[in-house]
Amino acid sequence: MKRLFHKHDHDQPCTFMVNMLHGQAEGRLKGFKRLYAMAHVLRCGPCRRFLESLEAMLKRVKETRPADPPPEVIEKLLEGDWKEESRP
Question: How do the pLDDT tens digits run along the chain, 88 residues long?
């Protein structure tokens, strides 16, 4: 329990938690690992801020979806007419 509820002076996430926090932000943690990570961030400010920044970044990435190609491009691809046209 010493590593779960500890205090430190720096503003960096705990090195032993970084991979676990990535898993939590991506929704991959289950069971005890998820419980452990969530209990840790309740007591550790640097890890909580790190997790919040990861979640915010992943949300922005998911919201930044590339635009769909124009219908004529999709049609050419489906027809197999995808070779680049020569440009003047």
Answer: 455 556 666 789 999 999 999 999 999 999 999 999 999 999 999 999 999 999 999 999 888 877 888 888 888 888 876 666 655 5
Burial class (CB in 10 A: 0-12, 13-18, 19+), 25: buried
Q: How far is CA 41 from CA 10, 31, 32, 37, 85, in A?
A: 15, 16, 14, 6, 55
Q: How many C-beta atoms surround the C-beta of residue 23 within 10 A?
A: 15
Dihedral (CA of 43, 2, 16, 36) sign: negative
Let me know: does 48 contact 14? Beta carbons within 8 Å. Answer: no
Threshold 0.70, pTM exceeds: no
